[in-house]
Amino acid sequence: MDNLKTYLIFGLLIVSLLLWQAWQTDYVQPQKLAQENKDLMSDVPNADGVKPQGQHQQDLPDLPTSPDSLPTKEQDAASDANKIHVKTDIIDLYISTQGADIHNLALLNYPVESTRPNVPVQLLSDKSDEFFVVQSGLRSNVAAPTHYDQYTAEQAQYELSDGQDSIAVPLHWQSANGLKVTKTYHFKRNSYLVDVDYLIENESGQQFTAYPYSQFNRTRPPKASGFIYTYTGAVFSSKGNEYEKVKFDDLDDAAFSQKAMNGWTAMIQHYFVAALIPDQNNQENGFYGKSLNKNNYTAGAKMADINVANGATATAKYSMYLGPKEHKRLEAVANNLDLTVDYGILTIISQPLFTIMEWIHKLTNNWGWSIVFLTILIKLVFYKLSAKSYKSMASMRKLTPKLASLKERYGDDKPAFNKAMMDLYRTEKINPLGGCLPILVQMPVFLAFYWVLVESIELRQAPFILWIQDLTAMDPYFVLPVLFGLSMFFQQKLNPAPQDPAQAMVMKAFPIIFTVFFAFFPSGLVLYWVVNNTLSIAQQWNITRKLGAL
């Protein structure tokens, strides 16, 4: 922020954010779950228009459903015996034998809070109050394992040992007529990518045809506290529409469906993503999303048909990414998956800024200093533009005595005073908007940097120096917000004073108002504004002194 006009613009953004949050609270009321979610695959063909290919598409049986509510905590605890525990070097998860699906997954390198380093973030959970699971299966017009069917496991626990690079976890299902399905999960060291494959052995005496499906099923999360809003919901990607957000509210209004070659779908939230990536084999897949009861939502994919002749075998595979939104990891998994690091409409600016900040971090090994040095680089890029703004402000400051004289001469006759003031500007060849335009040009970069600081997981719980041990948390002692308020106060002293007494009083209150606002902002954001203001004060003081306006 380089002058008061910038504060007004930023204030408008804050007010807009608060209005958005109020609208969300008033019109998006979460409802308690009344019944267990019905299997989407039984009614998706009618809801999303994506029907499986093949002879069985006209005669799909309904899958079993239950009127019971989603599992309670007590029910969850009782079902732990039916889960297979898998642990790698970075994830700790449980696979339920019902559906052979991942129902719980913790990210070992990401504590919930920096003050609780031994409590990891639980990305997936089958607890009723934070329900977020993976569901998958095979859909056919004959007996086939869906996410309701029971599998058997070879052992109850798997752990990646020292020197081991991967784990394979097979689960088995068999029908009464000789159809065998083996669903195998593949976990790798230092990887959040989970590969899943089906091996289908057909000894049923007839051809078997089915399509694999996989979906994320989650409840609507509670409203986040604080001033910063980040998107939580479904995302779909396809050629020509590489990143399409479909909000929970949109799914309440209508189910989503599309057919696409390759592509992927995901459920994203602040810092973390669960993404489903069908095998990128240039086959058309169906992607869908649906609201089940306006509090429980799915986003998934229906993959190409598998046709298995009697006596033959066939395979199908897909992948899931279940972890942090780290650029490098996401780029390596699928095209455009890194867009889940959601910088919004300013991505084209935010991504280069993050790349530069990441490069600085390699030199400093401290994300706080990366913020400081990148702020300095941004100020250098806009140095000349800022100089024009400060020269305009200094010229107007020199006119303050003359403006005061005009104010005294015309008193309460505002039309006459305004006319005389504009005549004075023309005489002195001063553009009163000259201090505003250069700042408006810089605002997209400032806002893009803001989203880099908000969205980048690399800054999550990253320490700076001294008392700042988490750049994404508020300053525990409010030192940075106070420094910000003081910098704003000193910058006001370099700007021309408003001639309107009421406006002057409002301006005097701004440092206090914004100090209160920034007290609840992440310390990394406040650090950016403190450094930016300090550099702006130094540049503006130097220009104002040279023009003799002090």
From TrEMBL:
Transmembrane portions of the chain: 367-387, 430-452, 464-490, 510-531
Which keywords annotate this record?
A: Cell membrane, Chaperone, Membrane, Protein transport, Transmembrane, Transmembrane helix, Transport
Which stretches does the entry tag as region Disordered?
42-81
What is the topology of this protein in the membrane according to its UniProt annotation? Multi-pass membrane protein
What spans are recorded as compositionally biased (Basic and acidic residues)? 71-81
InterPro entries named in the record: Membr_insert_YidC, Membr_insert_YidC_N, YidC/ALB3/OXA1/COX18, YidC/Oxa/ALB_C, YidC_ALB_C, YidC_periplasmic_sf
Segments forming domain Membrane insertase YidC/Oxa/ALB C-terminal: 367-544
| Any one GO molecular function term | membrane insertase activity
Q: Where is the composition biased (Low complexity)?
A: 60-70
| GO BP terms, alphabetized | protein insertion into membrane; protein transport
Membrane insertase YidC N-terminal domain location, by residue?
Answer: 84-355
One GO CC term of this entry?
Answer: plasma membrane
Q: Does the keyword Transport apply?
A: yes
- Subcellular location(s) of the protein: Cell inner membrane
Tell me yes or no: is Amino-acid biosynthesis among this UniProt entry's keywords. no
Q: Which family does it belong to?
A: Belongs to the OXA1/ALB3/YidC family. Type 1 subfamily.
Name this polypeptide is given: Membrane protein insertase YidC
